[in-house]
UniProtKB/TrEMBL annotation:
This is Succinate-semialdehyde dehydrogenase (NADP(+)). PROSITE patterns: ALDEHYDE_DEHYDR_CYS, ALDEHYDE_DEHYDR_GLU. The gene is gabD_3. InterPro entries: Ald_DH/histidinol_DH (IPR016161), Ald_DH_C (IPR016163), Ald_DH_CS_CYS (IPR016160), Ald_DH_CS_GLU (IPR029510), Ald_DH_N (IPR016162), Aldehyde_DH_dom (IPR015590), Aldehyde_DH_Superfamily (IPR050740). It comes from Pandoraea captiosa. Residues 21-484 form the Aldehyde dehydrogenase domain. Belongs to the aldehyde dehydrogenase family.
């Protein structure tokens, strides 16, 4: 697939600061690669703390005017942005597939998914309600009002380069915050295109600022935001290690944080489950983006009575998946994001097989396609001491664990520091209610593998972070509550 868009102007190669497209102050640049063949797609600014500070300056100056806009006026801007995203869905889907690697159908699907958050929060902008507190004293009136927290720093991952940044920017703008954003090093082009459409939609200068940076320089840029007291909130999606670092380093200015961090999701199949439905649900949740999502099932527990039958059904479906670059319209699994990702997947598979696991299908890289491809894999006879149980694989590998009882599988499923998502299949509704209550995760799929929705709260517990994105609850992290006590009324 060539870098040929209907609107070539959407391919931005500069930072957006204060409504202007600008290079890094020291003119540094770095290349963005296509993971399918490692070809250079474009070069973008390699920003530093100086650029991050310029973005904060712009956001801070723009805050009072944007905050004072009527909610319906902010909503109208977001609706225009939403319409432009949909109107340019094909180009945006191409950019996603080019720089991230996912099949084109998934790239287009991500555009629709990301746009749904912009539409949702455009509507929610006019629904930020406060409260009149029941009178406690004569002559006093007490109210609680919600106000925008201020300048927000949004730091996003590479696996969903449009959806993740859209669902952070949209609620912030909806309630009257201004934003400084840094997309992932590997996938900045989609974020810059999204920002370009926001400007076209009428987002005023300084309200949304986007800078790009390589890994090393990006750390310095983000550090400036962490130290700057004008940045009142940080929203981050990424690894738990980085999330902990952000929480620690932002403590000096007591910022509000929302952190969507790593996962180690269990997927549980009981012996009374509809096996065909369970396989379909697992395919949908596990192989989305080639297994490179934080809610992908990482540990699949199957009750002993149906273990072999389930493994056979699953292996047949997985073996039929078509692995190819996004240029192949029939592709179902694309390349992994980089060589490091492939090396981690291979390390997990080799470790499991060296300890007795067996590959029913796959089990190795696919060098004939390129350096970043790994065969969709099903492993049987996996045990809890293997790396695939203890670490998030982030790839197209399904390890199957055998279990006997409900109590056992709940204990094993919860035996992890993480708690982002969990899935289970059963036709026993009493058991279903017990499982939903006892599984330690922020997102539960009950006889369902596709759980994401703009109308639902998304986020984790334990080492998977805190705060929620999406739904009516997704505004709360961008708001502060002010209590107003009015006296001398009688």
């Amino acid at each position: 697939m060539s870098l040929s868009l209907s609107r070539p102007d959407l391919i931005r190669r500069q930072n957006l600061i204060n409504g202007e497209w600008t290079d890094a102050r020291d003119a540094g640049r770095y290349p963005v690669h296509n993971p399918a063949d490692d070809a250079v797609l474009a070069e973008v600014p390699d920003s530093t703390a100086v650029d991050a500070r310029a973005a904060t300056d712009a956001a801070s100056r723009a805050l009072p005017t944007w905050r004072d806009r009527l909610p319906r006026e902010r909503a109208e801007v977001l609706r225009r942005w939403h319409a432009l995203i949909l109107a340019n869905a094909d180009d945006l889907g191409k950019l996603i597939s080019l720089e991230q690697g996912k099949p084109l159908a998934e790239g287009r699907g991500e555009v629709a998914y990301g746009a749904s958050y912009v539409d949702w929060f455009a509507s929610e902008a006019t629904r930020v309600y406060g409260d009149i507190i029941p009178q406690q004293h004569p002559g006093k009136r007490m109210t609680a009002v919600k106000e925008p927290v201020g300048v927000v720093a949004a730091i996003t991952p590479w696996n969903f380069p449009l959806a993740m940044i859209a669902r952070k920017i949209a609620p912030a703008l909806a309630v009257g915050c201004t934003v400084v954003a840094k997309p992932a090093e590997d996938t900045p082009l989609t974020a810059l295109a999204l920002a370009d459409l926001a400007v076209e939609a009428g987002v005023p200068p300084g309200v949304l600022n986007v800078i790009t940076a390589s890994r090393t320089r990006g750390i310095d840029a983000v550090a400036d935001w962490l130290a700057d007291a004008r940045v009142r909130k940080v929203t981050f999606t990424g690894s738990t290690a980085v999330g902990i670092h952000l929480a620690r380093e932002s403590a000096g200015t007591l910022k509000k944080l929302s952190l969507e961090l790593g996962g180690n999701a269990p997927f549980i199949v009981f012996d009374d489950a509809d096996l065909a439905s369970a396989v379909t649900g697992l395919m949908a949740s596990k192989f989305r983006n080639g297994g490179q999502t934080c809610v992908c099932p990482n540990r699949v527990y199957v009750q002993a009575g149906v273990y072999d039958a389930f493994a056979e059904l699953l292996a047949r479906r997985v073996a039929a998946l078509h692995v190819a670059p996004a240029s192949d319209t029939n592709a179902q699994i694309g390349p992994m994001i980089n060589r490091r990702a492939v090396e981690k997947i291979e390390r997990h598979v080799v470790d499991a097989m060296s300890q007795g696991a067996r590959a029913l299908t796959g089990g190795a890289p696919l060098p004939s396609l390129g350096a970043h491809y790994f065969a969709p894999t099903v492993l049987t006879e996996v045990t809890d001491n293997m790396l695939v149980s203890q670490e998030e694989t982030f790839g197209p590998v399904v390890p199957l664990f055998r279990f006997e009882t409900e109590e056992e599988v709940i204990r094993r499923a919860n035996d992890t520091p993480f708690g982002l998502a969990a899935y289970f299949y059963t036709q026993d509704m009493r058991r279903a209610q017990r499982m939903a209550r006892r599984l330690e995760a922020g997102v539960i799929g009950m006889n369902e593998g596709a759980v994401s929705s703009e109308a639902a709260p998304f986020g984790g517990v334990k080492a998977s972070g805190y705060g929620r994105e999406g739904s009516k609850y997704g505004l709360d992290d961008y708001l502060s509550i002010k209590y107003v006590c009015q006296g001398d009324l009688d």
